[in-house]
Amino acid sequence: MLEALHSKPNAFVPRVVGQPIPRMDGRHKVTGTARFTAEHHPDGLVHGVVIGSAIARGRVAAVHTAAAEALPGVIVVITPASAPRLKPLPDKVQGIQYSGEGGLIEMLLPMQDDRIHYAGQAIAVVIAESFEQATFAATQVQVSYEEDVPELALDRATRRSRPDSYCGMEPLQLSTGNPAKTFQQAEVKLEREYETPAHFHSAIETLATVAEWRKQGGAEVLLIYDTTRVIKTANAVLAHCLDVPESDIHLVVKFLGGSYGSKAWMFGNVLLVASCARAIGRPLKVEWSRQQMFELNGYRPVTRQTMRIGATLAGKITSLSHDAVSPTSAVSGYPEPVTGMTMIMYDVPNLAISQEIRHLNLPTPSPMRGVGVLAGGWALETAMDELAHELGMDPVELRMRHDAKKGPLSGHPFSSKHLDQCLERGQKLIGWKQRRAYPANRQEGRWATGLGVAASPLPPVQDQAAAPAPLRAPDT
Predict the structure, then answer these.
(1) How confident is the model at residue 243 (pLDDT cuts 50, 70, 90)?
(2) Which of 70, 123, 253, 415 lies most in the core, judged by the most C-beta atoms within 10 Å?
(3) Which residue, of 224, 259, 294, is where some domain finishes?
(4) How confident is the model over 169-194, as pLDDT tens digits?
(5) Which residues neighbour 209 within 8 Å (Cβ) at sequence distance 6 or greater?
(6) Does residue 252 belong to any structural domain of this protein?
């Protein structure tokens, strides 16, 4: 390929692609000189420890802080009664829906009232001169609750909804043809229910925020170090809720110690630190504990998915429906978009997707790597394998026969799907044609081994972008 490019006059010749280029941050990371968020220590820094709720539903009746505030080094214990007030979170940022059913984020602002919606929810911040002093003082804070019965199981959720879309972008309720009638009339019917567990982000670097307010030219400006990978978005949310111009917020992320889809959309954490630092008039750092990473950091929720596929005896799929249920918190409308892959994968004349969310007293879920596709794709591909088994058909052939060349619902041709080419090449590379087409047919010691197939697309998200490119004459 490169030789062909070199042979063409005026051809662009890549100088970096395929070359062993040292990572810009590699030396810093392996020598320990990389400064992560929690390693920034501005002058006058104090430390905060966040206390989470011990109950899943109810209200904070009282927070007894006297014993903690009497300890050496303790500056203040901030509670819902004394927490700085914040403006409501925006309904939409950069075209992405935040609020309402189908919205992306938790709409609960930290410590603005005494209501508790899930265990681990922030209900107090202990601020002291040292981390050790703050940590011990947090154990001396006594909290009284008025507890309500929490809703924790999918089948017991009283608040349920069917969002139209995922964050205002991907549809969640769609149908073409008559899937239900066609399924009932099908010669071969496959109906299966699949469940997936919750998955949690737990990167090596836990969440951390360092916030410092400064006077600059008569204005109050915020310098903030945070473990976020959405700098522009976080900046916009901070400016909105703190009621300051975006230009007066300088958000810095030098290094990020892993995210796996997290460290993006849980804005309550950074808002809590920024607002508390403003209230006490000193730089403040909060490092969330490993336990709090499972409570205040988002996660992939459990899913329950029902697949119904109708087909002819000859192996033609005539109907496909994918109905999904997932939980969200009581203060979010986030849906795990598991039906997205079903919309675009296979050419089926009668196709339907439907998604329901059920509000529970659990922490708020959020996007995680492979959002929707991982759980939803597993259900779809498992159902395809089971259908192939029922038909006595090669599962690769079944997939290739139904490879959609255009969006089954939109009618638009795909620009770069190539599922058929991928399957064709894959079966040649692993010797698919030589396999024995029944389970557990080959034994290697205590293991039954064999070959299997599954496929998955990852739809790209395209957005508007622009970059300046000045052109100047030589020597100017």
Answers:
(1) very high
(2) 123
(3) 294
(4) 889 999 999 999 999 999 999 999 99
(5) 37, 224, 225, 226, 227, 269, 270, 273, 274, 285, 286
(6) yes
Supply angle C-alpha 40, 43, 47, rounded to 5: 65
Identify the three-state secondary structure at position 237.
helix
C-alpha distances (whole Å) from 34 to each of 25, 27, 221, 224 are: 8, 9, 26, 17
pLDDT in tens, 429-457: 999 988 887 777 788 899 988 889 999 98
Q: What CATH number did the domain enclosing 314 receive? A: 3.30.365.10
Gap between the Cα atoms of 458 and 371, Å rounded: 9
- CATH number, domain containing residue 53: 3.90.1170.50
Q: What is the number of structural domains in the chain? A: 2
**Residue keyed to tokens 């007066």:** 248
Distance from CA of residue 391 to its chain's centroid? Answer: 37
Distance CA 465, CA 462 (A): 9
Work out the angle at residue 394's Cα, subtended by the Cα atoms of residues 388 and 396, and round it to the nearest 5 degrees.
95
Angle at 402 between CA 433 and CA 451, to 5 degrees: 30
pLDDT in tens, 114-123: 999 999 999 9
Bridge partners of 10, per DSSP, are: none
For residue 143, what are the CA distances in angstroms to 64, 122, 124, 371, 378?
A: 6, 12, 9, 37, 44
**17-33 average pLDDT score:** 88
On the 0-12 / 13-18 / 19+ scale of CB atoms within 10 A, 224 is buried
Q: Do both 315 and 393 map to the same domain?
A: yes
Tell me the residue range of the domain where 260 lies. 40-148+203-294
322 — phi, psi (to 5°)? -135, 105
Question: Is the distance from CB of 275 to CB of 86 less than 8 angstroms?
Answer: yes
pLDDT in tens, 383-414: 999 999 999 999 999 999 999 998 876 788 98
Q: Which backbone phi and psi does 212 adopt, to 5 degrees? A: -140, 125
252 and 306 within one domain: no
